[in-house]
Design brief:
The chain is α/β, with parallel strands linked by helices. The chain has a domain of 200 residues: FAD/NAD(P)-binding domain. It is 33% helix and 26% strand. It is built from ten helices and 18 strands. The strands form three sheets. Strands 1, 2, 8, 9, 10, 11, 17 and 18 form an eight-stranded mixed β-sheet that branches. The protein is globular, with a radius of gyration of 21 Å. It starts with a strand and ends with a helix. The protein binds flavin-adenine dinucleotide.
Length: 416
């Protein structure tokens, strides 16, 4: 039986961040990962300024990574280019990095800070205290053999399936938004673009004769000559039903500008998809010795499907609360520190996610999407505001009128 101060289940961005910040504080932290790094993760590989800000905080060297300067949105024959804003709280550029490489860099960073990584370990369930029911470890299989790990606290960073939390009855809330997205890679002249290209008019069926899906298509550079290309949609109460993503993707390919040279024959790998758990759709974020971070806590933004920034942020805040708890001598005082993790996450993101839930319910209505694309896109100021809201690229304190408006709306919205 292995022992640690904290066991982190899953070595994606959320697990890497949690373990990095805990190791930096000198705690004994073990990451259990079912795969072996480098491993792939289906993702758009896009890093907004908010995510870049988190990477900078972690001390990740991003020299040579594919950099972008803003978003270019297309729809109804219009397009608008919105550079990332100049803000106090994050840089004015985004990045893109294949997850196979990004996640490897992040977990190596955590290991070099002192975290222990065990690969090929599949966590299968919790070890609970027989009297209190508190989580005191995990059961796992390592190279096919059953084993047990014990710790004072356990963190579920196991992504959308959150197998550990689910096994303890912490199911995802079916009334909260859930997205579905598909992606592949392709060589395209768009790889030379400095912008994240976003197709806001995504037809569910025949162009002009069907509904515009609540979602968007994306294409942006990840490395020399190669773009990540994909599309995603969401439902305000669980995953959207009845969407044929592969056919939507084909329609987009056929109708994209000829100079982008899109063609399904050029895809470098099959189109593959996964679910995006949104707006804190799995709670409580802390109870009975178990914390949830990243996708396990449903932390993808309902506005744009971004989850890496929040995975990194939640890991940072979870490690902060765990560090406080581990340094206290009474259980009551430790529990108080851990309860603060959930409160802190809600203070940071709860209002914003509540706005996102309203947004998800609105864009689900086909008429609303038609009006937005047709009448909204031609208005530069409106679009600048809208894209700042969608990408969570605003200053919570101070800033210009757009920042102050978004911050005020997020402040008055319920804390999700
Ligand atoms: C198609 C698509 C496109 C996306 N595009 C973007 C984007 O461009 N930008 C962005 O910010 N976000 C994007 N996202 C969302 C983003 O991928 C996730 O929010 C992010 O990966 C969450 O990180 P995480 O660490 O919480 O989970 P994950 O990255 O899923 O990591 C979980 C880890 O836990 C391990 N694990 C799982 N179960 C167990 C177990 N039982 N035992 C041991 N290990 C286990 C897994 O192997 C994995 O390594 C996209 C998602 C999809 C599906």
């Amino acid at each position: 039986m292995e022992e640690a101060d904290v066991i982190v289940v899953g070595g994606g961005p959320a697990g890497a961040s949690t373990s990095y910040y805990l190791a930096r504080q000198g705690y004994d932290v073990t990451v259990l990962e079912k795969a072996t790094f480098p491993r792939d993760k289906i993702c758009g590989d896009g890093l907004t300024p908010r995510a870049v800000g988190e990477l900078i905080r972690m001390g990740i060297d991003t020299t040579g990574w594919s950099r972008n300067l803003g978003i270019r949105g297309y729809g109804a024959g219009n397009f608008i280019e919105v550079p990332w804003p100049e803000l106090a709280s994050m840089p004015s550029y985004g990045l893109a990095k294949r997850r196979r490489e990004l996640d490897h860099i992040l977990i190596k960073h955590a290991v070099s800070a002192g975290a222990r990584l065990e690969e090929n370990v599949q966590v299968t369930g919790a070890v609970c205290h027989e009297r209190t029911g508190r989580v005191i470890g995990v059961k796992a299989t390592k190279d096919g053999e059953a084993c047990t790990y014990r710790a004072r606290y356990v963190v579920d960073a196991g992504g959308v399936s959150a197998r550990l939390a689910t096994s303890l009855g912490r199911a995802h809330d079916r009334k909260r938004p859930m997205g579905v997205a598909y992606r592949s890679y392709m060589k395209s002249p768009l790889a030379a673009s400095d912008f994240m290209e976003s197709q806001l008019e995504l037809w569910e069926g025949e162009v002009g004769k069907s509904n515009i899906a609540p979602g968007y298509g994306w294409a942006w550079a990840v490395e020399d000559g190669v773009i990540n290309i994909g599309l995603g949609s969401l439902g305000s109460k669980g995953a959207p039903k009845g969407m044929d993503y592969k056919s939507m993707f084909s329609t987009w390919m056929k109708n994209a500008p000829a100079e982008w040279e899109f063609s399904e024959e050029k895809l470098l790998e099959p189109l593959r998809g996964a679910a995006l758990p949104m707006a804190f759709n799995r709670q409580p974020l802390y109870a009975d010795g178990l914390l949830l971070v990243g996708d396990a806590g449903g932390m993808v933004s309902p506005f744009n499907g971004e989850g890496i920034a929040y995975a990194l942020q939640s890991g940072r805040l979870a490690a902060d609360a765990l560090g406080q708890a581990l340094s206290r001598t009474s259980i009551v005082a430790a529990e108080r520190a851990l309860a603060y993790y959930a409160k802190n996450m809600k203070d940071e993101l709860g209002g914003y996610y509540s706005l996102g839930r309203i947004f998800a319910a609105l864009i689900e209505r086909p008429q609303f999407m038609h009006i937005c694309v047709k009448y909204g896109l031609p208005h530069p100021t409106l679009m600048r505001f809208f894209l700042r809201l969608l990408s969570d690229a605003y200053d919570k304190e101070g800033g210009d009128w757009m920042d102050r408006t978004i911050a005020s709306l997020a402040k008055v919205a319920p804390k999700a």
